[in-house]
Amino acid sequence: MVPGSIEALLHWWAGYKFKKGIQPLWKVVPVAVLWSIWKARNECLFHQKSVDGFDLAELVKVRIAL
Questions:
Q1: pTM of the model as a whole
Q2: What whole-number distance in Å separates Cα of residue 3 and Cα of residue 47?
Q3: CA of residue 57 relative to chain centroid, distance
Q4: CA atoms within 13 A on the CB side of 50
Q5: pLDDT digit string, tens, across residues 24-66
Q6: Is 64 in contact with 32 (CB distance < 8 Å)?
Q7: 5 secondary structure, DSSP code
Q8: Is 10 exposed, middle or buried (0-12, 13-18, 19+ CB in 10 A)?
Q9: CA angle 13-24-7, nearest 5°?
Q10: How far is CA 23 from the centre of its chain?
């Protein structure tokens, strides 16, 4: 079943039992995705820039790695 809201998705994600070795990494994923989308949105709205989906995905990967 797919969660019906961002809040429900985050609650589901927080309660999911990932393997112990990767649990800390997976806790970062939703934050990196949401932050990247928020920043891209602001670039579009306030600086009239366009955001490429591929570039956004790469940025998320970099943020997770850092």
A1: 0.76
A2: 32
A3: 9
A4: 3
A5: 888 889 999 999 999 999 999 999 999 999 999 999 999 998 8
A6: yes
A7: S
A8: middle
A9: 25
A10: 15
